[in-house]
Amino acid sequence: MGFALHEAKTLAEATMLARDLGPDAMFIAGGTDLIIQINRRVNTPRDVIDLSRIAGLSGISHAGGVFRIGALTKHKTVETYPAFGFGTPYAGLREAARVVGGHQIRNQGTVGGNLANASPAADLIPPLLALDAELDLVGPSGTRTLPLNAFFLGPRRSVRAHDEIITEVRFRDLPPLSAIAFLKAGRRKAMEISIISVAARLTLEADGRCRDARIALGAAAPTPIRAREAEALLEGGVPDEGVVAMSARAALTSVSPIDDVRASSEYRRLLVAALVPRALKICIDRIKSARS
Amino acid sequence: MLDDADDKPCALSRRGFLGGASAAGAALPLVAEAATKPRTGRSVAAPDARAPAQVTLRVNGTDHPLSLDTRTTLLDALREKVGLTGSKKGCDHGQCGACTVHVDGKRVLSCLTLAVMVADKPVTTIEGLARPDGRLHPMQQAFIDRDAFQCGYCTPGQIMSAIACINEGHAKTHSDIREYMSGNLCRCAAYPNIVAAVKQARDVKEG
Ligand SMILES: Cc1cc2nc3c(=O)[nH]c(=O)nc-3n(C[C@H](O)[C@H](O)[C@H](O)COP(=O)(O)OP(=O)(O)OC[C@H]3O[C@@H](n4cnc5c(N)ncnc54)[C@H](O)[C@@H]3O)c2cc1C
Ligand code: FES
Ligand code: FES
To answer: Do A159 and A78 belong together in one domain?
Structure first.
């Protein structure tokens, strides 16, 4: 059976509709995930609330030392946003956005949908975790803000109530001598879900010691995760090859990857061990080349 | 999968019939109404779910008023209702690019687009490229000149993507073209000739 499609013009309309229609109603943004779920009968919503025509939820802005990405922003916009370009400290975000599906998917799929899905393999989540991003959830009774890392509960499960809409995700400017890098392993390059993804972010002191480290992993556990032991090992010391190798080993203590058709758990662990040091080295190189 | 009745443009569809003979003009469930009358749960919403939506698709410059099941993808609407079968269904879940069309000038996958969500937005399909006098679009001509297909099944999607690729400014180098055409698979592996065709069309446009 079909569903009733409700076209919301404002956030308030959308949240009220969701509240009144109950948990069988679902939001749709770009539809790249939901339409497949509906076709496969994974989801059979009675009502679908179209968010795509709500004004003011799309686009990226930068003011007051904060980057804000509206929930309806397309992956393509993130990929082509100049301040996230190669040569900027935020290049890792572009690296993630440019490997989501193919170019057509990136013209359709939204950042909000990528987060709301709460897929452990969603590509934008690790770099946003590495940037200490927070997000806003707007529901019928108001707005709440939470750190992105408190959003995920399990595969496709989050703390979002059925009538809450993600409106934006935002993060502060990185301090000087910072960089973020993102690496993704899939079975092939284009249009492929990650079997492991790694986002690393380093902030160095002028003397080369590590002030702040973030390592976030996708598809390595039931939710996207931070490898906190690995981060702690890096902080305070000089991230030379030995330390980087140690932190990669430490990252393995944080993961609990699954076996599936795409990769075995063992292979995923090997990828974590290989990609964490690579991502960290890219960060170090980027910081160095920005400095010189 | 389809029956002939469904192929007729604008015909009252089976699904529409099932939904009751709702005349054109019966609109989508009204948000305004829903917002002012608090509803609880599915009881009120259920009848809406069976009602076909009345939408107008603007395809290649022509308006097509249609009565559609809300689940209908743009691809199915184009092929089964509007009667434009140029856009192909390869996978029906976003992985092959055969269904690529332009919405609002951007390339999207029509199999992952709900028709009702693009009502009133300009849609361009492969059928909308040639001039009224029959002269082919430079990209269509280039695909012929460069022999950029074998079976031809992926070709409409490749051409729609290729045009977008040039419009986006991503056809400058060989590797750019390969990267920016990577959302379109070709089972016959005509890739080298496709790249050659994109280059030819690019140079025609520039030259
Ligand atoms: C072929 C293919 C390849 C893909 N490859 C990748 C990939 O490489 N990497 C990757 O990360 N993803 C990939 N995806 C998944 C998907 O395209 C992305 O996750 C995309 O960002 C989803 O956004 P959307 O707007 O299309 O979501 P939708 O399908 O519109 O919605 C997805 C879910 O999120 C909810 N939702 C959407 N927006 C909001 C909001 N603002 N607030 C609350 N809930 C909301 C919906 O109710 C639904 O449950 C792929 C999909 C396909 C079909
Ligand atoms: S049919 Fe749409 S991508 Fe394959
Ligand atoms: S020409 Fe046969 S699939 Fe491309």
So the answer is: yes
Structure token digits, residue A31:
């539809």
- DSSP 8-state class, residue A46: S
Distance from CA of B148 to the nearest CA of A (A): 20
Q: What three-state secondary structure class fits A168?
A: strand
Region B151-161 average pLDDT: 98
**Segment A72-129, tens digit of pLDDT:** 999 999 999 999 999 999 999 999 999 999 999 999 999 999 999 999 999 999 999 9
Ligand nearest to the CA of B109: 2
Domain boundary among A172, A201, A224: A172
The answer to whether the beta carbons of residues A237 and A209 sit under 8 Å apart is: yes
Rg of chain A in Å (alpha carbons): 19
Question: Is B197:B146 a contact under the CB 8 Å cutoff?
Answer: yes
**Residue A76 belongs to domain with CATH number:** 3.30.465.10
Nearest CB to A7 within list B31, B49, B106 = B31
Q: Of the residues A42, A46, A103, A105, which should be mutated to test ligand 1's pocket, given the most ligand atoms within 8 Å of the CB? A: A105
Q: Is A191 left (phi over 0), alpha (psi -120 to 50) or beta?
A: left
Residue A204 falls within a domain, yes or no?
Answer: yes
Residues on chain B touching A28 (C-beta within 8 angstroms) = 114, 117
Which residues on B lie below 8 Å from A36 (Cβ)? Answer: 93-94, 112
Residue A170 DSSP SS3:
strand
Q: Which residues line ligand 3 (CB under 6 A)?
A: B 149-155, 186-188, 190
Q: Which residue of B has its CA nearest to A102?
A: B183
State residue B44's pLDDT score.
31
Specify the CATH architecture of the domain B129-207.
Orthogonal Bundle (1.10)
ipTM of the complex: 0.89
Asked if residue A146 and residue A71 are part of one domain, the reply reads: yes
Claim: this prediction has a pTM higher than 0.80? yes
Q: Which residue of A has its CA nearest to B165?
A: A103
| Domain ranges, ordered by start, for chain B | 14-46, 47-127, 129-207
> What is the token pair recorded at B55?
């939408």
The three-class DSSP label of residue B39 is: coil
A39, A86: one domain: no
Q: In A22-131, which residue ranges form alpha helices assigned H by DSSP? A: 34-39, 75-80, 91-97, 103-108, 111-116, 125-130
Picking from A9, A105, A190, the nearest residue to B109 by CB comes out as A105
Domain that residue A231 falls in: 178-291
For residues B69 and B66, give the distance between their C-alpha atoms in angstroms, rounded to a whole number. 10
CATH code for residues B47-127: 3.10.20.30
Domain total in chain A: 3
